[in-house]
Amino acid sequence: MLVTPIGMLRTPHTQREHTPIQATANLAEEGVAEIDARFAAALDGLSAFSHAWLLTWLGDDPPTPLDSLHQRPFLRQDGPPLGVFAMRGPRRPVPIGLSLVEVVDVGDTRLRFRGVDMVDGTPLLDIKPFFPAADQPRSPVRAGWFDEVDVPEGATPASLRAAPAEDDGRP
After folding, report:
1. Which residue ranges make up each domain of the chain?
2. From CA 115, how far away is CA 109, in angstroms rounded?
3. What sign for the dihedral angle of Cα 157, 158, 159, 161?
4. I need a surface site. Which of 31, 62, 69, 102 has the fewest CB within 10 A?
5. Which CATH class for the 7-59+95-133 domain?
6. Which residues of 69-85 are buried (b: 16+ CB within 10 A; e: fewer)?
7. What is the pTM assigned to this prediction?
């Protein structure tokens, strides 16, 4: 299977370690999706939406080996390792990223957005408009271990590794 990116993302971030871990933890920062001119017509109508999903390729690294399918989440470093399908990090068997961003402006071959959680030069695979009736579950939502953690504004892998563990009162 061959997948051809439709464009490239431009952001202020050059290192994954210092890039916010979730778009919702970095709502003020803007980025730009530069769309290949061959796909420019596909942007027609997108400006009517307030939000869109960006699907990206996070595969700069070698494929995740089978012995690395359990990892410790940045947001819960003192907890047990989890399977990568219970996490949202970039180290996965097929490293596809998914970011819900706010649409700021749509030009001929550009999409300006808020909610940057990607490194500059990240290949863009697709854009899909956010559609609440389809994108928000109608039944109660459980978010697994995410229900137990906070995502601080601007959190990056480096800042989370540097954060001191909370004192649980034990000697």
Report:
1. 7-59+95-133
2. 19
3. positive
4. 62
5. mainly beta
6. eebebbbbeeeeebebe
7. 0.83
Q: Is there a contact between 127 and 5 (Cβ–Cβ < 8 Å)?
A: no
**Interval 135-147: pLDDT, tens:** 988 899 888 887 8
3-class state of residue 49 by DSSP: coil
SS3 21: coil
CA dist 77 and 99 (Å) reads 23
Tokens 């034990």 identify what position? 170
Distance CA 130, CA 99 (A): 11
Amino acid 153: pLDDT: 81
